[in-house]
Amino acid sequence: VKKALNEGIYKPQNITKTQFNYMIKKLESWDYNQDKDSIAATFFNIWMKRFSSTFLRDTLLLEDDRIYILGNFKSDHFIFGRIRTWMDKKDNDFNDYWCLNNFNRGKTYPCLYTLVESLEDTFKLLYLQYGKDEQSWKWGNLHHWVYKNTPFNKIPILFKLFEKRVINGGNSRTLFVSGIDTMSTDSVYSANLRMVASLKEGDKSWLIIDTGVSGHKLSKHYDDQMKIYHAGGYLEMLQGRM
Questions:
Q1: In sequence order, what are the residues at sequence separation of 6 or more whose Cβ sits closer than 8 angstroms to the Cβ of residue 38?
Q2: Which residues contact 8 (CB under 8 A, 6 or more apart)?
Q3: How far apart are CA 143 and CA 35, in angstroms?
Q4: Which regions of the chain are under pLDDT 70?
Q5: Greatest pairwise CA separation for the chain in angstroms
Q6: Partners of 145 in the beta sheet?
Q7: Percent of the chain with pLDDT strictly greater than 90
Q8: Do 102 and 113 touch, CB atoms closer than 8 A?
Q9: Own/partner long-range contacts of 63-67 (Cβ < 8 Å, ≥24 apart)
Q10: Is the pTM of this model over 0.90?
Q11: How far is CA 10 from CA 7, 30, 114, 158, in A?
Q12: Looking at residue 165, what is its pLDDT?
């Protein structure tokens, strides 16, 4: 990003260079924790989401196939690996076919151009949708874990009664896994069951699920494990011979 700005490869269109530098400093000082209170985590996740939305546009792939490829964890390794090679500043590295599209065609370094443009889009999106107060840009304000009761999630009157939303952190690469939706910043999958188990007889073991064991809204077990789960806690498993 610094290379593109300092060498004039990319000129800001809708934000100032000061605002660019603000994001860069946040990312440089980031501890890579996807905490719900992290603003740098928001910058990174929205940035990569915007950047990946431009991939494989200059191909004959159907949209469903393009999304499927980008949703595979192997694509992350490939893309981040390629970005690392850009540190060598070889001209041909910035012309990878997977990031060429109608918007960067004809640019000197099309891939690098799109990478920096995506960071600008990130700031613009946050400013327009969440206001100028950076405290509203914390990752947890954008990234909700959404629990839907499938039979009712398409019934307007009922889904609000059954749906549960929890502010939390994480993304698809964290231990506290929380995959990001392609159409929003909400979570689309997580580790629904966590277990710490010993195979030695007499040892204690623990488990937790992310909601509750009952699907009945009026049951006290509908969501009684949710707070424990999101606090990182566990319930001890009862043991005994059947």
A1: 30, 138, 139, 169
A2: none
A3: 10
A4: 89-94, 149-154, 156, 158-159, 240-242
A5: 72
A6: 166, 187
A7: 33
A8: no
A9: 67/182
A10: no
A11: 8, 24, 9, 49
A12: 85
170 with 144: CB under 8 angstroms? no
Cα separation, 212 vs 52, in Å, equals 35
21 phi-psi bin (left φ>0, alpha ψ -120 to 50, beta other): alpha
What is the DSSP secondary-structure string of the chain? -HHHHHTTSS--SSS-HHHHHHHHHHHHT------TT-HHHHHHHHHHHHHHTTTTTTSS--HHHHHHHHHSHHHHHHHHHHHHHGGG--GGGGG-GGG--TTTTT-SSHHHHHHHHHHHHHHHHHHHHH-S-GGGG-HHHH-EEEE--GGGTT-HHHHHHH-EEEE----TTSSS-EEEPSSSSSEEEE-SEEEE---STT---EEEESS-S---TTSTTSSTTHHHHHTT--EEPP----
> How would DSSP label each residue in 156-224?
HHHHHHH-EEEE----TTSSS-EEEPSSSSSEEEE-SEEEE---STT---EEEESS-S---TTSTTSST
